[in-house]
Amino acid sequence: MLLKIAFPACGLLAFACLAAIPGSQLSTDTSQPSAKPQSPNAPAYTKEGRLLFPAHYREWVFLSSGIDMSYNRKALAADHAMFDNVFVNPEAYAQFVQTGTWPDKTVLVLESRMGMDKGSINHRGHFQGTELMGLEVHVKDEARFAGNWVFFDFDNEVSGSLFPKEAACYSCHAEHAAVDTTFVQFYPTLLPIAKQKHTFSANYLKEESEAK
Fold this sequence. Notes:
The structure is a single chain. About 15% of the residues lie in helices and about 25% in strands. The radius of gyration is 17 Å and the shape is globular. β6 and β7 (about 160) form a beta hairpin. It has a domain at about 50-165: Chalcone isomerase (3-Layer(bba) Sandwich), CATH 3.50.70. By secondary structure, the chain is α+β, with helices and mostly antiparallel strands. The chain has a seven-stranded antiparallel β-sheet with strand order 1-7-6-5-4-3-2.
């Protein structure tokens, strides 16, 4: 079951930039897939332009996990903890390790899970619940989208809808992301690679310099 809940503006991928959506059961999507992708991990779309659900994303490379993150100073704290987990398709990860940037057909997945504090022998801190509360995807597809990168939101495990270009996540990524409009600054195993390869964005370097 995939539920939608209220998220702070932006997350590890700055995906959560829509208004709160009430919890609901998985919806039924009868859209049919279009041409098969060259790689099983490459982005694939329905004929209507929706992104097909990346069913095996949890077998991909895990990049990072954050808890209760928000880039909006005015965002109200939720009444519960929330974990964000980020995964990337292995082909894109391998290319990043070599070059310090993302290749075409990169797929980054953000899943959100409820933070739990009561369970088994736990007496302090939080652990992740089993229920998936939200899922959003950041895709690099140079031939399909102007600007190369787009975001998709999923409220079912069939296909996701495209975020409109007016959504705040696009400008947030362009202005603050460390590498190629992605928040590599929050991915601890990739940040040193980007530094070594000198692939940090000019905006990120400026922000880091001003913060010192």
